[in-house]
Design a protein that fits this description.
By secondary structure, this protein is of the alpha+beta class. The chain is built from 10 helices and 10 strands. The chain has a 6-stranded antiparallel β-sheet with strand order 2-3-4-5-7-8, with no helix packed on it. A two-stranded parallel ribbon has the order 1-6. A hairpin with a 4-residue loop joins β3 and β4. α2 crosses α3 and α6 packs across α7. The longest helix has 67 residues. It is elongated, with a radius of gyration of 41 Å.
Amino acid sequence: MKKKSILVALAAVCLPLALSAQKEGQKEREITLNEAIAMARSQSVDAAVALNELKTAYWEYRTFRADLLPEVNLTGTLPNYNKSYSSYQNSNGSYSFVRNSALGLSGELSIDQNIWLTGGKLSLTSSLNYMKQLGSGGDRQFMSVPVTLKLTQPIFGVNNIKWDRRIEPVRYAEAKAAFITATEEVTMRAITYYFNLLLARENQGTAQQNRKNADHLYEVALAKRKMGQISENELLQLKLSALNAKAALTEAESDLNAKMFQLRAFLGVGEDEILRPVIPEAVDGSKMEYNRVLNKALERNSFAQNIRRRQLEADYEVATARGNLRSVDLFASIGYTGENRNFPTVYKNLQDNQIVQVGVKIPILDWGKRRGKVRVAKSNRDVVLSKIRQEQINFNQDIFLLVEHFNNQAQQLTIAKEADAIAQQRYKTSIETFLIGKINTLDLNDAQNSKDQARQKHISELYYYWYYFYQIRSLTLWDFRTNTELEADFDEIIRQ
């Protein structure tokens, strides 16, 4: 009976501990590099910023497209009430004030169409006006304009619509390419945070193992010291190594928590979830050709669209300055109008109505101000073109260096991986050799430092390989592993 009570008590104590451990295990999850990238692209703040910038560019482009379509407008005054006094000159030359009291209604329906070929505007309008004098004996009057065709056309000015048709599609193409690039940059940040956590976890595991080994070696050294097999100096050296290993473990755990928080915050993961990154798969070691990478970058990167847009904008500024040298505007209107006291009759017995106006503004003497603005615009265009040429040189150079780094990185990674395996084996052998008294503590510490550095070097070289790979993807918008272009369903993305 007593034995059974003891078992029940042990179960009562151990069961909560087991459930707690299981609960903690459920919160911990492994995460691969591809999973982290996918989460970053869908959940990170950077991805949301890139999406909103794309939506802004999309609606700006939609607004430009809408300017090319017919526009229907309804304007009116409902009502216009006027009760005031105004001066009136009598037949004898004297003035007097008369009282006006009237109620007016007006409305106009128009269909407007911009003419992108000429930069003019064509409007088809229909209007109706009603005026009633208030008070005793007040009269009323209707006036209708059933149909009027109006044309407004600048003769020498710049055609803004034509220039927008050239610039806006390039601007939107630049925005779409920039969105894909921004997505790849989000991937690069995710890779950085992922490998920071991976390296911190490796360092924590290494520090934990080093402390365990240091404590074990110190216990062995105590026994050897009692037998006189090692000196007091070597014993103190091993005790110091154990203390340093304990301090290194504390620092490694703190760094692990910081890197864990950083990755979770970037991916939008809850703080109660423990992420355990998995070392990415081995790479194939393939190399890239500079000319192929450069051609893809010049063809698909937003930089190419940016250059084209800036060139067009500089040309547009010059055209605007030239158009401002003189201004001639044509306004023409043709239609019919009717007038009557009764509403149904106002659309009968219509009379034609034509208006033609030509406005001219030509500077006679402006002391060269307008021509000076043309020269300023040309100089600014030359500056833009010079900057573009330098940016193209820098862009080509960056592509060249990046390809060189990537091609070299595959070899560096292979070397680092082999060095890591050798250093691990050397440290294991050094411990065994130390236990039999064949090497001293200095050699053992050197083997441990080499092991730790080789492991960090291996993780670091693996990080740079993937970082360079995705950096090339972000510049070329091309996946060289699958030999496919990076695309996005922009219509579906905008609807999100």
